[in-house]
Amino acid sequence: MPLQFNPVKLFSGSGSTELSKKIAHSYGRDLGEMTVSHFSDGEIQPFYNESVRGCDVFLIQSTNQPTDNLFELLLMIDAAKRASAHYITAVVPYFGFARQDRKDKPRVAIGAKMIANLITAAGAHRIMTMDLHAAQIQGFFDIPVDHLDASVIFVPHIKSLNLPNLTIASPDMGGSYRARTFAKYFNAEVVICDKQRKRANEIESMSIIGDVEGQDIVLIDDICDTAGTLSKAASLIMENGATSVRAVCTHPVLSGKAYETVENSALTELIVTDTIPVKHESEKIRVLSTADLFANAIKNVNEHGSISNLFKVD
């Protein structure tokens, strides 16, 4: 007996509208109609303008700041559950609060675990996300997690640059595994920038482990927040004789003076994805779209296909 597929409906939160439109276009259908109304004090109330009864519903919303993005997603999930959706998948291209994945000092919250609990409690049956800050966050969920890998987007782009002396670099010790994973695709060497922090978003010192002289360096990271680490790493790399330095970061948080920092840095370019909307145009910032990858993942979830097949890099 052939598998029966439920009708699919895609809805966008207000924080991921442009990416959601691209995903829907790639998938081959229009976004569902939904309204997010606000009370005079700012309270959010999303509601669906069409029936979702018996449907496989995919709710697309990154949970970057402001926190309204997260809470709007939770309310969207609850509304879909109460409207008798058959299966609810929270599509969270950027999973905010992922940097709070452990108690690294006394009396702090493990924010990533709390957010996982909230999404599950709201009624999501599944979550789809990309490049979590720490892969083990998948274990915080008691529902299936589809953890998409942006390397399938970045690796072909890096290959297209035809860099003659490519070396992959990590901007800190914590990203060394990610850098080594990228390096395998190119049979390239890896160097690591060892940084010491005074506090969050403030670097005390940095040194390079490895040789960068005469090399075309590509820094690999998952998040670019203030761009302070990447800027300092790029300067240090160029001071040590590198020919060029670029950075690849999945999630362009780009807070504070990040755009100015990138513009004034030694980086040739910063290559990011559209998991978070880029607020300002910059000649140094190149945005690659994740829409086709998410659309294919949504199709495979609905049709009970393999997600791992999407991770094959050409």
Describe the protein in words:
This protein is an alpha/beta fold and 314 residues long. 28% of the residues lie in helices and 27% in strands. The chain contains eight helices and 14 strands. The strands form three sheets. A seven-stranded mixed β-sheet has the order 10-9-8-11-12-13-14, sandwiched between helices. The chain is globular, with a radius of gyration of 20 Å. The two termini are 35 Å apart.
With helices defined by DSSP (H or I, 4 residues minimum), what is the helix count? 8
The strand count comes to 14
Largest sheet geometry: 7 strands, mixed
**Radius of gyration over alpha carbons?**
20 Å
Strand content: 25-35%
Overall average residue pLDDT: 93
What is the straight-line distance between the termini?
Answer: 35 Å
- As a percent range, the share of helical residues equals 25-40%
Class of secondary structure makeup: alpha/beta
Please provide the ordered H/E string of secondary-structure elements: EHEEEHEHEEHEHEEEHEHEEH
The best one-word shape is: globular
Query: Low-confidence parts, pLDDT < 50 over ≥5 residues?
Result: none
Which sequence of strands runs across the widest sheet? 10-9-8-11-12-13-14
Note the quaternary state here: single chain
